[in-house]
Amino acid sequence: MSLFRDDGIVLRTQKLGEADRIITLLTRGHGRVRAVARGVRRTKSKFGARLEPFSHVDVQFYARGSELVGRGLPLCTQSETIAAYGGGIVTDYARYTAGTAMLETAERFTDHEGEPAVQQYLLLVGGLRTLARGEHAPHLVLDAFLLRSLAVNGYAPSFESCARCGLPGPNRFFSVAAGGVICGDCRVPGSVVPSSEAIGLLSALLTGDWETADACEARHAREGSGLVTAYLHWHLERGLRSLRYVEQ
């Protein structure tokens, strides 16, 4: 029997029995972890209120054996709140749907339990913090998170040089299969011709140029979101259920 301590973001919860829950977290040191939290659905449980989606928590686990992720699910025995991002997210529909999509994306990109994914974890913490504070439009925060998640997982799209031959931009065509913008010579079936403003917005979101992103017109933001969604679905091989509810 071993004790482990880590901090993480609660991604989702599932009912277990009459009073328990299975908590899925993205942790700093152990990647995605599922654990059983006993008694948290009882009305008098203060412990359960800390283990809701969007919560940033310091958690103690009790596991059988020397590894946190092994035979059977570990028990979540203690939890302390680091930041309750849910308070600034769940009361606003646009923030809530964007945040839900961020949680689902983080879970999909960490499909192997127990494998550290520090960059994805830090992206999620920063994204939820920004979303909860209302510093930028929710759909822009979401698109920035999606693009950076793709990048840290090895799928960074190109928005300047041709993704196939490297021809310096600007290049006018965009192909999700080719990896971003492509030149006329490398154009493939299914390529689209997005506006330069939409491509500029996506480049700004990927690099953190919020001054440019915040000044973008709504129509270009919608166009950019469509490209991000298509690119994400291509690499995940199936869509995110939560994206259909996101307001643009």
Automatic annotation (TrEMBL):
GO cellular component: bacterial nucleoid
Xref: Gene3D superfamilies: Nucleic acid-binding proteins, Recombination protein O, C-terminal domain
Keywords: DNA damage, DNA recombination, DNA repair
Gene Ontology biological process terms in this record: DNA recombination; double-strand break repair
All residue ranges annotated as the DNA replication/recombination mediator RecO N-terminal domain in the record: 1-68
NCBIfam families, alphabetized: reco
Similarity comment: Belongs to the RecO family.
PANTHER family from the UniProt entry: DNA REPAIR PROTEIN RECO
Function description: Involved in DNA repair and RecF pathway recombination.
Protein name: DNA repair protein RecO
Organism listed in the record: Streptomyces inhibens
Gene it is expressed from: recO
